[in-house]
Amino acid sequence: MHTHRKPAAGFTLIELMIVVAIVAILLAIALPSYTDYITRGKLTEAQNNLAAYRVSMEQYYQDNRNYGGATCGVPAPTSTSLKYFAITCAPVGGGSTAQAYLATATGDAGTSVAGFTFTIDNSNNQQTTAEPAGWGSGTINCWVIRKGGSCQ
């Protein structure tokens, strides 16, 4: 009499190791791209707030014919409205009747945007004056949005 045994069910150790290796390779490829994607999303906070701040400063200029005193005529956005950047503004020349300004957004330390610095002035000159390694080198005459110094 023959006894029929059920075939063994499940996966062998080799099959499981192959799956683990494939997942590790995919993760090694996908994770850096994902973190860059998240960082690019955070950069828009600085860029959008600097652009909006410039509009506010131009409205102030239309009413007062100058950009204000020691800290610019319009208060810069504060940490309550910003999550990843700090924005400052400095009038350029003229004291309380400054005819130019430079607004700066600096990435907060300890975040993925640390090392980024963006500026805009009264003539709408946009610059990336600092960025982490791999994102560009030196001052770039636009706001960087991708690695390699790409502005588009």
Structural class: alpha+beta
* Strand count: 4
Q: How would you describe the oligomerization state of the chains in this entry?
A: single chain
Query: Mean pLDDT, rounded to whole units?
Result: 89
Q: In the residues, how many domains can be counted?
A: 1
Q: What helical percentage do the residues reach?
A: 25-40%
Strand content: 15-25%
Helical stretch tally: 1
The strands making up the biggest β-sheet line up spatially as 1-2-3-4
Give the radius of gyration: 26 Å
Describe this structure in words.
By secondary structure, this protein is an alpha+beta fold. It has one domain (13-130). The protein has one helix at 13-64, and strands at 85-91, 101-107, 117-121, 126-130. The protein starts with 12 loop residues before the first helix and ends in a 22-residue tail after the last strand. 22% of the residues are buried. The model has no long low-confidence stretch (mean pLDDT 89).
